[in-house]
Amino acid sequence: MFRCTFPYVLAVFFLPGIGDEPYGYHPANWQVGSRFGKSTIAHYYWFQFYDDLVNADNWHKEASMIDNFCIPSKRVSGPLFEVFVKYREQDGKAINAKKAVKPFNATGMTFMDNGFNATGKTPEDVVHSEQLDSLRSIYADLLKGVTEIQHRSELITERDSKVISFQRHYQESKEQNVVTVKELLLEGFQIRIDDQLVPSSKIDADFYTHPRHGERGMLCFFTLDSLAVGRHTFSLERRTENTRDLLHNTTTIPFMYEGR
Fold first, then answer.
1. What are phi and psi of 183, to 5 degrees?
2. Phi, psi of 229 (to 5 degrees)
3. Is the pTM of this model over 0.90?
4. Residue span of the structural domain in which 35 resides
């Protein structure tokens, strides 16, 4: 009896997985960008690139992490195009090579009052704090020997004026550093709509933390001049590390423009 039933047991376990592939000419979502290369992405609405396609079913999947960039929806309307470009470690290394630019946070592990933290004061912040403390200490020593009210008041006014001026100059330098970093990040990639380059001078970008999985990057906007209603493609090309040459690995995705 065992010999007679053995073939049927095999059939029960293996035959359900055997059959004809009904989608011979339709790539599965797991094949996009891997088996057929990135050229397939230009012809597939892969949910990773569109915020409106990320839902409860695929939110926790590793594939929902933003790898390079994403746009709010596969359907675009209005005069502005919005795209989130994810910050890469290579971007930081390329910017770090420029000595005129300072990091916003200290890298590596630093010991804070509440324990270990991945961020802390930069060397520039430390120097600024020391100089500010030194300035206040100098005036504190001057005020110790002053009893005359008018003279004491003048010294306090002078001290406060110098502290405010010192703080303002430091904040202005930090703001200029932010602007410079933004400009350098914009130099790190190129955007094209239907293979037409969007000049960086027409792109407005600011720092942004994407709510999907907390990815950091730049939120960019640019105008869609005279774009016809219908299907179009968006392309992003990143630059290689420590060079101005473009990496020839462009990611292209489709979108539908609904007009203004």
1. -65, -40
2. -65, 135
3. no
4. 30-99+188-257
